[in-house]
């Protein structure tokens, strides 16, 4: 190749290639010049080095490395907070419609599959250097990837907000009736759950959502987790206090002997298939989704490594598995077939200070958690619209419109099982199964040494697709059959 005009030999010798840990500089390549020609070996090596270096820089441009400061123990606590949510209230209902053995099988399977999906996500993060899910999607699949991740995480957060406000709609009337000294059957417009959820939304949640940043509300996740642990303790305690069947057993005793009624209502079932069984897997999947929080927690981990973060995930998921299983089994063994999709709603607070306390604690926790989730959804929406500069009118308008839409959904959705079902088969499935495996397969598509891992990831992706193809039609079929209003059996 002839020299470019004006290029001196000394300039050529002074040329440098950007440094890279895996690329060594061989000075011989820079001196092999013959009769005004650059040695072809020099050209090919130089081009390949530049290509490798550009690829390396491309990988690292996603996020600048910032050392983490959070200990392993605190990271476990943070990830457990991210996993724990309202899904715990629906697990006893899922167990009642699958039986103990089938539920345990599903719970173990989803736990292990969730841990594997975290592994895939961490590998993708390590390969790209991305510590934000949306950035990871954009880095691998471009703008469509960013949009899909945004849609999945936003739908998951909206589903969580709906379930939290549904708890307010269900539980606040009972708490107010108790404080007023009224019977559970008392009805008046001011103890109507629909009116109360709107009042709470625009009286408490809206002002908090209008803040420019949430500040101290970020710490409410710890309080929320504490409330759920308290709830689990109460569920276990009440199992040994509440007689099996309760009022339902008394209602059936006129037509059945007490012994036969007891046998019918109070015998645990191990494998069950009915029209509500389809909600079990989406409900469990919904309960285990924490993937949008994994990478931020990973980025804050002190002396972080993929192995260390995987340990954090393993401990967190095992702890939540134990909490979920104990809540489900003790809730089921208290109410058996009469359990509802909101387990807390089955406990009557009349003359029971303990139940009233746990009910109020959960209500306060979810009310304070809604603005945190709302802030995330709104910020992501502005980021996608490239409207990151603060504008008060837009800020207020978007906040009010989103809260109105969320309230309308809460008012007209008949039960929490519908929320768990829809979000479980859509966003939870995307975040646990489809996205991590798709990202991994795209990143490792040219890596021949990872053939076995790619096969497993492909099977994982196929499982997610199969889950959608089977669950979505069954959920829709149940809506059509039950008119969307059936709660029990």
From TrEMBL:
One Gene Ontology biological process: gamma-aminobutyric acid biosynthetic process
Membrane topology value: Multi-pass membrane protein
Domain of life: Eukaryota
Pfam families the record matches: Aa_trans
Residues spanning the membrane: 76-96, 102-124, 145-167, 187-209, 216-237, 278-299, 311-333, 353-375, 396-413, 419-443, 455-477
UniProt xrefs under InterPro entries: AA_transpt_TM
Protein location: Membrane
Cellular component GO terms, alphabetical: axon; basolateral plasma membrane
Residues in coiled coil: none
Sorted UniProt keywords: Membrane, Transmembrane, Transmembrane helix
First-listed, main subcellular location of the protein, grouped into a coarse class: membrane
Residues annotated as domain Amino acid transporter transmembrane: 69-476
GO MF term (any one): L-glutamine transmembrane transporter activity
PANTHER family: AMINO ACID TRANSPORTER, SODIUM-COUPLED NEUTRAL AMINO ACID SYMPORTER 1
Protein known as: Solute carrier family 38 member 1
Species, as recorded: Strigops habroptila
């Amino acid at each position: 190749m002839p020299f470019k005009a004006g290029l001196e030999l000394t300039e050529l010798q002074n040329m440098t290639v950007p440094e890279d840990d895996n690329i060594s500089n061989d000075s011989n390549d820079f001196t092999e010049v013959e009769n005004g020609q650059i040695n072809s070996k020099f050209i090919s090596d130089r081009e390949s080095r530049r290509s490798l270096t550009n690829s390396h820089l491309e990988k690292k441009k996603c996020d600048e490395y910032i050392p983490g400061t959070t200990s392993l123990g605190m990271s476990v606590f943070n990830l457990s907070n991210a996993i724990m949510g309202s899904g715990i209230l629906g697990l006893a209902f899922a167990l009642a419609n699958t039986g103990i053995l089938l539920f345990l099988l599903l719970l173990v399977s989803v736990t292990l599959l969730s841990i594997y999906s975290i592994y895939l996500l961490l590998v993708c993060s390590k390969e790209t250097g991305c510590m934000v899910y949306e950035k990871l999607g954009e880095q691998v699949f471009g703008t469509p990837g960013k949009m899909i991740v945004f849609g999945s995480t936003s739908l998951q957060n909206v589903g969580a907000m709906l379930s939290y406000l549904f708890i307010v709609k269900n539980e606040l009337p009972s708490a107010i009736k108790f404080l007023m000294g009224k019977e559970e059957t008392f009805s008046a417009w001011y103890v109507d759950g629909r009116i109360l959820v709107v009042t709470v939304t625009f009286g408490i949640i809206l002002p908090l959502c209008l803040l420019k940043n949430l500040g101290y509300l970020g710490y409410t996740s710890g309080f929320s987790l504490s409330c759920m642990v308290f709830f689990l303790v109460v569920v276990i305690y009440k199992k040994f206090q509440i007689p099996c069947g309760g009022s339902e057993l008394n209602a059936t005793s006129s037509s059945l002997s007490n012994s036969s009624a007891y046998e019918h209502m109070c015998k645990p079932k191990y494998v069950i298939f009915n029209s509500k069984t389809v909600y079990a897997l989406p409900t469990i999947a919904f309960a285990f989704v924490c993937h949008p929080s994994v990478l931020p927690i990973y980025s804050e981990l002190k002396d972080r490594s993929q192995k260390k973060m995987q340990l954090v995930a393993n401990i967190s998921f095992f702890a939540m598995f134990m909490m979920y299983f104990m809540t489900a089994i003790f809730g089921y063994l208290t109410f058996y077939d009469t359990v509802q999709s909101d387990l807390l709603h089955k406990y009557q607070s009349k003359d029971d200070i303990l139940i009233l306390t746990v009910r109020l604690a959960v209500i306060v926790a979810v009310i304070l958690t809604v603005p945190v989730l709302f802030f995330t959804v709104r910020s992501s929406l502005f980021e996608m619209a490239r409207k990151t500069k603060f504008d008060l009118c837009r800020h207020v308008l978007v906040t009010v419109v989103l809260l109105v839409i969320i309230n309308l959904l809460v008012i007209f959705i008949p039960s929490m099982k519908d929320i768990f079902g829809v979000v479980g088969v859509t966003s939870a499935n995307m975040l646990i199964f489809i996205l991590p495996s798709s990202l991994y397969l795209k990143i490792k598509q040219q890596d021949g040494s990872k053939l076995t891992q790619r096969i497993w990831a492909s099977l994982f992706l196929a499982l997610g697709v199969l889950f959608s193809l089977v669950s979505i039609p069954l959920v829709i079929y149940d809506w059509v059959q039950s008119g969307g209003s059936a709660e029990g059996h």
